[in-house]
């Protein structure tokens, strides 16, 4: 499933990225395959999404979260 479709409060493990220039930026921010992410908050209109990854909060646009494939745990 895509990270953008995960519900608030749920956790998942990053599986892979859609291969484009964005995946390098995401990996530099701590979103690496095998890392656990948790959806902290979703803005009222669905964008942006606040996630907990690698010990810190990260805010992503929904379009960025669409590029991250995860497995819910």
Automatic annotation (TrEMBL):
Top-level taxon of origin: Bacteria
Molecular function, one GO term: transition metal ion binding
Protein name, as recorded: Ferrous iron transport protein A
SUPFAM superfamilies according to UniProt: C-terminal domain of transcriptional repressors (SSF50037)
UniProt entry keywords in alphabetical sequence: Iron
Pfam families named among the record's database cross-references: FeoA
Entry annotated with the keyword Iron: yes
Domain Ferrous iron transporter FeoA-like: 1-72
């Amino acid at each position: 499933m895509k990270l953008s479709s995960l519900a608030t409060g749920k956790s998942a493990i990053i599986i892979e990225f859609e291969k484009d220039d964005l995946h390098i930026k995401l990996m530099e921010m701590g979103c690496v395959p095998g890392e656990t992410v948790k959806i902290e908050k979703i803005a009222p209109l669905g964008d942006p999404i606040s996630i907990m990854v690698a010990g810190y909060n990260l805010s992503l646009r929904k379009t960025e979260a669409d590029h991250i494939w995860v497995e819910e745990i």
